[in-house]
Amino acid sequence: MPITVRDLLADPTLGLRAVTDGERMDEPISWTASTELEDPSPFLSGAEVVLTVGLRQRTAAAQRRFVSRLAAAGVVGLGFGIGLGHEAVPAATRAEAERTGLAVFEVPYAVPFLAITRRVAQAHADEASARLEGLLREHQVLAHTLLSGRGLPGLLGALAQMLGTDVALTQYGSVLHTAPGSRLPDEPWTRVAISTGSADAATLAVRELPTDADILAYAQSLVSLELSSQSRHRASLRQVRGQVLGDIVRGAVTGAEAATRIESLGLQPRRRHRMLALSLTTERGHGRERVLAALPLPGPAADLVTAVLQETLLIIVPDTGPAAGREIAEAVAAHVEAAGLTGSIGIGGAYPHPEGLRWSWFEARQALARGGRINDVEKLSLTGLLLASEDVPLAAMSDEVLAPVRASDAEHGTDLMATLARYLDLNGSAAAVAADLALHRNTVRYRLAQIETLTGLNPGVTADRVQLWLALTVSRVRDGG
């Protein structure tokens, strides 16, 4: 406990005698200051006990000024040494102290000021030692709670008990864990950022900040380490699962072996599952895969089997009804948006067996190609059916047809690909394309002629148009939009 003026007066080894009671006798003493200055206030920071023998306080006016200045500086007590300059505490000193509420005590001639300073210093040292021991005990409790299997919920419960306030862990505005009995109110809490080295946006929220922030800082570091560990484990697991599912959707493994691999993922092969495919448009290449691999999912999706495959995050949802996939997709989409990311989700159908997962994957990928926020399942088109077969080199055909058009756009700054896409989407109407792209009809016809020259395919001929449409659709499905 901090030492006070009352504690000093109660110490029999010092032999101090109270002269006046003070309003701040029970407040902690910050330090002692020995002085014979007429005005020591510039050198005081508040809450000190000032010690003096009054050598320069020869008049009543000087004595009153001295006490008044100490009171204004926030001093908690005045120790007046007798037997040197004064045989007793001056009456003016006592009177001004009573007026200002400053505690004054008499220090016997035999008691050196150093003894009082040592007593205060020892009290501070004892308090610091006790605080450090308590802090170490609290550190041990938090670490043991986290490592003993109680995880983050147990740690938050222990922290809430130590701090005497509600505690919660949030992520992208969603509550991950709360201490037992804690609930996030409508009004904002104090939030402390948690660094995990990935796109987690996690915060440790407390209703009231503690006066001692050390234990909160330690809890912050423990939570950060745990979330970082979870993030690395999640990314590794998703990569491994992606390899397993990749073999299944390519048809590289089938039958009993495929069923065994499905079971190894924690899925029941005979149960109906549907695939959700999440693609991000705010990241590219390896950066996008890293984000998808580490991205945590909100409550209803947190315990589902997930994997990263072809720059998409797959979420495998057990079929519990027609709305199950949509509800999960809505929760994930909101979570992604709260993370500041832009993404699109495709929903596949619900089927049993490994072959069903494969079919659902292609449906989800085709739905994803529509590019909306959430894209519901549709029956596989001719493109989807062909993509489901590894024996049909559809991707190579698409690249061969469209590569010259893309190269021309890149080299000359033309918009042939965009014109072709709108021409096919608008059922081969040059007039509709001209209106949609704000172009003259002759400009549209000129671009279509360029496309024919580059590809050898005439967009106005049905057979050639089908091949161009197939190439463009394959490109969209493969690129996720």
UniProtKB/TrEMBL annotation:
Superkingdom classification of source: Bacteria
Domain Purine catabolism PurC-like: from-to ranges: 7-122
Domain PucR C-terminal helix-turn-helix: 416-473
Gene3D superfamilies: PucR C-terminal helix-turn-helix domain
Protein name: Fis family transcriptional regulator
Domain CdaR GGDEF-like: 256-368
UniProt record similarity statement: Belongs to the CdaR family.
